[in-house]
Write a structure and sequence with these properties.
The chain is α+β, with helices and mostly antiparallel strands. Among the domains are: about 45 residues, Laminin, CATH 2.10.25; about 110 residues, Phosphorylase Kinase, domain 1, CATH 3.30.200.20; about 220 residues, Transferase(Phosphotransferase) domain 1 (Transferase(Phosphotransferase), domain 1), CATH 1.10.510. The chain is about 30% helix and about 20% strand. It has 19 helices and 34 strands. The protein has a six-stranded antiparallel sheet, covered by helices on one side. A hairpin with a 7-residue loop joins β7 and β8. α6 runs parallel beside α9, α11 runs antiparallel to α13 and α11 runs antiparallel to α17. The radius of gyration is 46 Å and the shape is flat. Pfam families: GUB_WAK_bind (PF13947), Pkinase (PF00069).
Length: about 725
């Protein structure tokens, strides 16, 4: 290839990797050597220039991972790192990016301070041919920000801007985007090119990043983050007032450094003082505003055209408005306004009427889908049901809840919300608004409502009716203000509401009577299947009300059990039912036995033991009762108020209810009889005047009312129940009727 230095000269560039280089220096005689050459005068001399890079490494260890475990590890400086050389023999040390110095001595790697925020030389040349060379780059010594940015401008007829010893030609420099246009000889190969880009001057960070495309590479002014760079005010590159710092990241997501850019609304060179100049957007972009455009520092503002002028999109400026007939304009304006007003009123009337008709059709559709006609027939066929159960319209329930006002919310369950409602007869009710219901459950829901409407027991939550004019039916039932037994037993001890031992015996007896009624006294047997303290609600007089029939099952009189999918609440679930899938009335007896343990021991069905592990209350009781007396494991309050005979009686009854085999457990009738006998014995032994006891209960009721407790069924369901209140009174599918 022809050398640009003139005719008759030739240069060959070659890169050769060798392992051994032998240099021999020979002292020649002082006499002038004679030249013996048959070449012409143009070729009488051959100059050989050899540039060598000698690489050395520490070969005590074969890899970086093994060398770090050696006591003679050479990379002792902070901010140093180990790397494998090109020969892949041994290891070498280097300072990390952003640091320079000697990594082989303690404290040898120091932060890079090699960046100069202004040229050290005045009157620097900034052009190489037709290529601009702005700061931080330079083509003369002392004109660049650091040695890495010093480029070479060839001194030929056609100047060429070069870097890396003339191996790469620079075609352009873009300061705003941080790009460097390059051109190189592709015969070097990609590996050698990457080696060149990754090399740098001694003590200089690697600032050139992998190429975005074949014609350009990215660069950074320093191998520091913006936060680190701003700490060194003298070496911070973004010296222009209206400039900002931007991070530079390579395509493989490894961090490189930072560069500078002018803020929005400014352009120029952010690396020199006052280099970022304001952009006049109004002149640069005609028609930017549909009115008058006013340039501001870094931005622009728009104002409307002055009076009697309008914006001309063709001329892109404000022009005078042509004079028109004022009266005609007023008439046209008033006519248009009146017409639009009339049209709007008519449209609003028609839209409201259309929405009302659509809602009415939708309500009728939901009523038919939810088997409203079937429920009406069932209710009308039974006189008792027709007196106790009502089908409410959605308008009645909206009025009762003030259109389902958020202030009327009593609690949120897993599948819906419970609202407090006041009916037109001033009766307070709880209205459950569910979100979803499974397909195929509507018929079971209707039949179950019809059955539950026949239940009339003072210790069972009363169902008032339902609403079928929504996608998911709404349930209306009695409002129980004092919450659940679970909340009172396991709430904060500082709670003002508490139960005496008399109250506990009475609540247990009332609950047992309600379950006995469901099992044998109702027109059709009903297995509750989810007996637990959170489903025993207390009214203003602390009277027990059994609730939540979402998991209940009805059984014909000629059957003793049902085979169903296992459902219930962990801690209360009958193990025999869990093993066999056969549901019978003894399953409710087992769950009631757990409730008796809660009244005695005042622990949750699943509680945290002293060891920190979760423990079953049932297992705890059955294990402790083998080696200890019942009075030794009951709660302190129970021990103070109850006699040893009462504690032993309730504990014995609970042990019988919790037997593994259902046939060994008592019936709910036997449980109720036992509890009533304990209450009677306690009354006889204390010889309390019934009127005084009634007065005391009234006083307790007043105290609980003053406590301001609210009915928050959905809240306690979300903490303790496997099934939400929104499924209450729903029957399961596939039950014989």
């Amino acid at each position: 290839m022809q050398d640009p230095r003139g005719p008759g000269s030739c240069s060959v560039n070659a890169v050769i990797f060798v392992h051994t280089v032998e240099l021999q220096f020979v002292r020649h005689k002082t006499s002038k050597m004679k030249t013996h050459s048959h070449l012409s005068i143009l070729w009488d001399t051959i100059n050989v220039n050899i540039e060598t890079v000698i690489e050395w490494s520490i070969v005590d260890q074969t890899s970086c991972s093994s060398s770090k475990e050696d006591s003679n590890y050479a990379c002792v400086s902070h901010h140093s790192e180990c790397m494998v050389p090109f020969t892949h023999v041994g290891y070498v040390c280097r300072c990390k990016s952003g640091y320079g110095g000697n990594p082989y001595i303690s404290g040898g790697c120091l932060p890079d301070h090699g960046y100069s925020s202004r040229p050290r030389k005045a009157n620097c040349s900034r052009w190489c041919g037709n290529i601009s060379v702005p700061f931080p780059f330079g083509i003369e010594e002392g004109c660049s920000a650091r040695k890495t940015f010093e480029l070479h401008c060839s001194d030929t007829t056609l100047p060429i801007l070069q870097t890396y010893g003339g191996l790469i030609d620079v075609t352009y420099i873009n300061v705003s985007e941080g790009l460097l246009g390059i051109k190189y000889d592709s015969s070097f190969g990609e590996e050698i090119f990457n080696t060149i880009l990754q090399s740098s001057e001694p003590q200089e960070p690697t600032l050139y990043v992998d190429p975005l495309e074949s014609a350009s590479v990215r660069w950074a002014v320093d191998s520091l983050t913006c936060q680190e760079a701003k700490k060194n005010a003298s070496g911070y590159a973004c010296v222009s007032i209206h400039s900002s710092c931007l991070g530079v990241i390579s395509s493989n997501k490894s961090y490189v450094g930072y560069r500078c850019a002018c803020l929005d609304g400014f352009e120029g060179n952010p690396y020199i003082t006052d280099g970022c100049e304001d952009i006049d957007e109004c002149k640069r972009t005609p028609g930017l505003c549909k009115g008058n455009c006013h340039n501001t520092v870094g931005n622009y503002t728009c104002t409307k055209c002055p009076d009697h002028t309008e914006y001309d999109i063709t001329k892109m400026q404000c022009t005078p408005v042509r004079k028109q007939n004022l009266l005609l304009g007023i008439v046209i304006g008033l006519s248009s306004g009146f017409g639009m007003l009339l049209f709007g009123l008519i449209a609003i009337f028609l839209i409201r009427r259309w929405k009302r008709d659509v809602q009415e059709k939708l309500r009728r559709k939901y009523f038919r889908t939810n088997k409203g006609l079937l429920l009406e027939q069932l209710i009308s066929a039974d006189e008792n049901a027709s007196e106790n159960t009502k089908i409410f319209s959605i308008q009645e329930l909206k009025k009762a809840t003030n259109n389902f006002d958020l202030a009327r919310i009593l609690g949120h369950g897993g599948h819906g919300t419970v609202y407090k409602g006041i009916l037109s007869n001033q009766h307070v009710v709880a209205i459950k608004k569910s979100q979803i219901i499974r397909e195929g459950e509507i018929s079971d829901f209707i039949n179950e409502v019809a059955i539950l409407s026949q239940i009339n027991h003072r210790n069972i939550v009363k169902l008032f009716g339902c609403c079928l004019e929504t996608e998911v039916p709404l349930l209306v039932y009695d409002f129980i203000p004092n919450g659940s037994l679970f909340e009172i037993l396991h709430h904060d001890p500082s709670n003002i509401v508490s139960l005496t031992w008399n109250d506990c015996l009475r609540i247990a007896s009332e609950t047992a009577g309600a379950l006995c009624y469901l099992h044998s006294a109702a027109s059709i047997s009903i297995f509750h299947r989810d007996v637990k303290s959170s489903n025993i609600l207390l009214d203003v007089n602390n009277t027990a009300k059994v609730s939540d029939f979402g998991a209940s099952r009805t059984v014909p009189m000629d059957q003793t059990h049902l085979v169903t999918a296992v459902q219930g609440t962990f801690g209360y679930l009958d193990p025999e039912y869990y093993q066999t899938g056969q549901l019978n009335q003894k399953s409710d007896v087992y769950s009631f036995g757990v409730v008796l343990l809660e009244l005695l021991i005042r622990k949750k069905p699943i509680f945290t033991a002293e060891s920190g592990m979760a423990e079953s209350l049932c297992n705890y009781f059955l294990l402790e009762i083998r080696s200890r007396q019942p009075k030794e494991i009951v709660a302190a309050q129970v021990l103070e108020e109850a006699t040893e005979e009462e504690i032993n009686g309730v504990a014995s009854l609970a042990e019988k209810c919790l037997r593994l085999k259902g046939e060994e457990r008592p019936t709910m009738k036997e449980v109720e009889t036992t509890l009533q006998q304990l209450r009677m014995n306690r009354t006889n032994s204390s010889q309390v005047d019934p009127s005084a006891e009634q007065e005391m209960q009234g006083h307790q009721s007043m105290t609980m009312n003053l406590a301001g407790r609210t009915y928050n069924v959905a809240s306690q369901r979300s903490q303790n129940a496997c099934y939400s209140l929104e499924q209450e009174f729903l029957a399961s599918a596939s039950l014989p009727r």
